[in-house]
Amino acid sequence: MLRRWFGRPRGEQGKPLAMNALRQVYLSLFDVQRAHALIDIAVTGVDARYQSIILGVDPEAGTVTVDEFFPRGFIGLPGQSLTVNARLDGSRRLSFVTHIIGRGRGDDGVEFYELMLPQTLDYNQRRGAYRLQLGHGGALTSEFRAANELRCVATVQDLSSTGIRLALPANEALDINEGDVLNRLQFEFAGRSFQCRADVRNVRSEADGDTVIGAAFRDLPMRERRSLERMIMQVQRQQAQQVSAAG
Question: How much is the pLDDT for 74?
Fold first, then answer.
């Protein structure tokens, strides 16, 4: 069954599916299920937070089954949006946004929820490198070549010595997925140019149509990595001093 599902060439409305990304979603969530790891659930519009466990992942049906929410008392409705976080080994964490498909009751009388299987996951790990937020003003841009060698120009949202987050304009008709490689990625920071390849770690779509790409530097030389880290820390100190002076 899984082989047949992973081999499907197209998804809804005839759009090509990112099979590598979907396969990774299934395998990652299956690992969370197998480990009986607690998941944290935030319900849109509700202040309280809940916990549960994943009971099953069905790629054929496109669903994730989770146990009843704890503490008890909340009744989720079909279509209600959720943000799910799962803690993995060490400091790793994955999260995804989904919605409730329906609610049921098992043979033991315990309620469960069917959630929509997400197409992508956001991986977070406690970083040893400080991440400098650069905002959305477009002051710092980056260029790279996508898998089809198409030249792309994006805005840098944040930067560290180990990776970068880019916002690609909505008019860039590209199919970029987790696991892809950004070739000839280049950007200038603090008067110095950097160039390397980067591995795409996560991709998400913004409300304004932009695509946000999180990528980890693959072959940035250690000397340049250290130089970048020093410059980022210098900018961080300058920002802290400005905030302190303004206060």
Answer: 85
Tell me the pLDDT tens digit for each residue of 158-190: 898 889 999 988 766 577 888 888 999 999 998
Both tokens of residue 58? 């069905």
Judgement on whether residues 115 and 175 belong to the same structural domain of the protein: no
**Token pair for 244:** 């302190």
Question: pTM to 2 decimals?
Answer: 0.49
Reading the block at residue 23, the tokens are 């396969």
Helix (H) / strand (E) containing 50: strand 49-58
Tell me the C-alpha distance between 147 and 227, whole Å: 28
CA–CA separation, 60 vs 200, rounded Å?
A: 26
Domain stops at, among 125, 156, 180: 125
Paired tokens of 65: 């089954």
Residue whose C-alpha is closest to residue 64's, from 116, 28, 19, 100? 116
Q: Which structural domain range is residue 177 located in?
A: 132-230
